[in-house]
Amino acid sequence: MSTSVCLLGGLLGLFLLVPVLMAPTQASMCPPLRTLNDSLSHRRRYMKHNFPINYTIRVHQKEVFKLSNISRMRLRVKGLDELVLQRLWFQVNQGVLKKIIRVMPERHPSRPYTAELERRFRDAEGVFVQSQPAEVFQQELPESIQNIWDCLTEEPDRVPESSWQFASPKSLLDNFLRTMHCLFRECFPTGTCNRTTAASHWRTGMNKP
Ligand SMILES: *[C@@H]1O[C@H](CO)[C@@H](O)[C@H](O)[C@H]1NC(C)=O
Ligand SMILES: *[C@@H]1O[C@H](CO)[C@@H](O)[C@H](O)[C@H]1NC(C)=O
Ligand SMILES: *[C@@H]1O[C@H](CO)[C@@H](O)[C@H](O)[C@H]1NC(C)=O
Ligand SMILES: *[C@@H]1O[C@H](CO)[C@@H](O)[C@H](O)[C@H]1NC(C)=O
Q: What residue stretch is flagged as signal peptide (predicted)?
């Protein structure tokens, strides 16, 4: 008796969860993301001009997160929920911002800009977390995404040498901005990314010998 009640409860729970887990980007995300978008429009000045020519920082390979990564994941991971990609975007860029700030001395001319950017990013993350039911964040990730997640959260001294990569702060923020436009399309209707074009780019790439 109690088993079947549990089962029924479980099934009911599943049915109730499905629409919840597929909730689209909430409109509440747009104001904080637009504020971030505004900050990012100054990235050339603060992330290029205030650094030595060709300056790069060391980041985890998985922190180089581009549009091509997104289209590849959409293609390879069946039934990939947009929310999972959005969570990954927050995880990646949290690490990116931290690493950029870490290389800047206290009096670096780009430091206030970067600190402000990070504050705005955290605000957006706070709204993101609040705009979704808590279950969303306990949901198991698809295996390939979980693997990336594990790499990103690995202790730095346990990351193998071959997993580090050098990238310029400006290029990291370029990726940050483009992938934001792609993953939060509801907030950036003029963004250049959509599923169709992303997927076809990838297919074109695969056809190359
Ligand atoms: C994002 O910022 C750019 C300036 O870099 C601006 O042209 C664009 O309108 C902004 N998008 C939104 C949705 O605010
Ligand atoms: C910067 O990188 C470019 C392209 O890799 C190279 O041609 C140029 O010489 C580099 N400049 C300096 C100052 O290292
Ligand atoms: C994105 O793709 C590049 C290869 O193009 C890879 O090195 C990097 O690890 C990928 N990033 C993620 C988050 O999967
Ligand atoms: C994707 O974007 C292209 C232009 O970049 C547009 O022609 C096409 O209609 C868009 N597709 C969807 C599904 O929005």
A: 1-27
| pTM value surpassing 0.70 | yes
Q: Which ligand is nearest to the CA of 52?
A: 2
Q: Which residues form the pocket of ligand 1, taking CB atoms under 6 Å from any ligand atom?
A: 34, 37-38, 41, 188
Q: Please give the number of the atom of ligand 2 that sits closest to the Cα of 54.
A: 1
Higher pLDDT, 111 or 78: 111
Distance CA 27, CA 151 (A): 31
Instruction: Please check whether residue 121 is in contact with residue 93, taking contact to mean a CB–CB distance below 8 angstroms.
Output: yes
Ligand 2 centre to CA of 61 (Å) is 22
User: Which ligand 1 atom sits closest to the C-alpha of 190?
Assistant: 13
CA-closest residue to ligand 1 atom 5: 41
* Locus of tokens 């698809």: 142
CA distance 61 to 83: 22
Q: Are 173 and 42 in contact (CB under 8 A)?
A: no
pLDDT band at 189 (very low <50, low <70, confident <90, very high): confident
Query: What are the structural domains, with CATH classification, of the chain?
Result: 25-206 (1.20.1250.80)
